Please model this.
Amino acid sequence: MLEKVKIGVFVMGGIAAYKVPELVRQLIKKGAQVQVAMTQSAQEFVTPLTLQVLTKRPVLTHTFDEREPSQVQHVAMADWCDLALVVPATANGLAKMAHGLADDVVTTTLLAVTAPILVVPAMNVHMYENPATQRNLAQLRADGLTIMEPDTGFLAEGYEGKGRLPELHRIVAQVERLYARTHLPQSLAGKQVIVSAGGTRERIDPVRYISNDSSGKMGYAMAQAADWLGATVTLVSTTHSLLPPEGVQVQEVASAQELAQAMTSHYDQMDYVVMAAAVSDYRVKYPHDQKIKKVAGQTDWQLDLVANPDILAQLGQTKRQQVLIGFAAETQNLLEHARAKLSKKGADWLIANDVSNPAIGFNSDKNQVYVLGAQGQEVLLPQQSKTSLALAAWQVILAEGEETL
Ligand code: C5P
Model:
C-alpha cells in the first residue's frame, strides 16, 4: 500500500523521538519515500544526521536554512507529501497545531500541508490528560486530522500511565489505513462487512483439540481490504497469532458452533458476509471436562464425531440483502469443485484456491485465486500478496455489483 508513497515525518521533542529512526526504516521497507522535519527539541533526542542517512534526504531543521534558491523549503516539503505523520506529537506541538501557530520548521510546514495528517501523541500521562491537551486534540480532530490514541503502559518517568507511543508496527498500519482510506475508491463506505477467519478448534478435552492448517491470513486480508475500502468491519477470528487490522472490530471464537453463533447474531445488519474460516466439518461428540488420561495397555482409542452445521449453507438459505462470499480450498479439480460448492451453498461469490501448491494457499503470504460468481463470472487473480489479492477480489465483487444494479 505504501509503495512510492511520499510521507513527511514531523518529529517533535519528546523522549519517544528515539524510536523514530526505526519507524522511518519500517516505512521505507514498505516502499515509502520519507522526508523528515524536526523541531529544535527533537534534535536533543535524535540527530538529524541519523534520519538523513536513513531517508537519503536532507532533514529540515530550521525554517530559514534555505539551501535551494529555486524553492521555499517548508512549502516544497508540504506540497511534496502524500501523507504527513507527526510523531511523537508533544503537548506543546499539539497546542501550536490546534491554534495554527507556525514558529518553527515543523509547525510552519504542517500549516502548509494539504495531504491527510496522522498525529501520534506521546507524553507523560498527566500532560496527556490535562484538559488543555484534550481540548487541543478535540480541535485537531474537528479540523479533520486523524489522531492515534497513545498506549497505556510503562512510561519513561518510571510509572504506568496512558501516553506511551503505540507499537511501531501499529503506527505503520495506521499510516497504511489513512493512505488507503484517502486514496482508494471508498466503494464500501457506509457498508457493514463481517469476515470469519482461521481454522476452528473442536475440543476433545481441556488441553487437546481438532483443527486444521488454516492460518487465517486470507480472512484477515479480506477484512483489512474491506476496511480500506471504507466499510465498517467485524472480524470473527479463531486465531491469536495474527495482528488484528487497525480499525477492525475483532471477536474471538474457537469452535464451529461459536463461529456459527457469532455469524448469525450479526447477520441481519450485514451487507457483505465473507466466510473465509476453515470450519471443521465434524466436532467431538462428547468433549471431556477433564484431561483424558492414558490407559495402560490400551492400543486403540475411538473418538466419536458429530457433524457441525454448514454455516455458509445456512446463511445462504436465510439470505436477504446480504452478498455472501465463500471460500473453497481444493487439492484437485479446483474449478469444478468450487462451482459445485457455490451453487450448493447458495453463495453469491466463491473464492477458490488450490492448496496443493505450497507456494500459495495455507500459511503462505501469497496466493492465487479464482473469483467465481453465481452468474457464471470467472476471474483469475494471479499470484500476489494476500493483501493485494484481497483488494482485487473486492474490486471484482463490487464492480460486478455495479453492473447488475
Ligand atoms: O465445504 P467446504 O468446507 O469446502 O466449504 C468451504 C466454505 O464453506 C468456506 O467458505 C467455509 O467457511 C464454509 N463452511 C462453513 N461451514 C462448514 C464448512 C465450511 O461455513 N461447516
Observations:
- The first helix runs from residue 20 to 29.
- The mean pLDDT is 94.
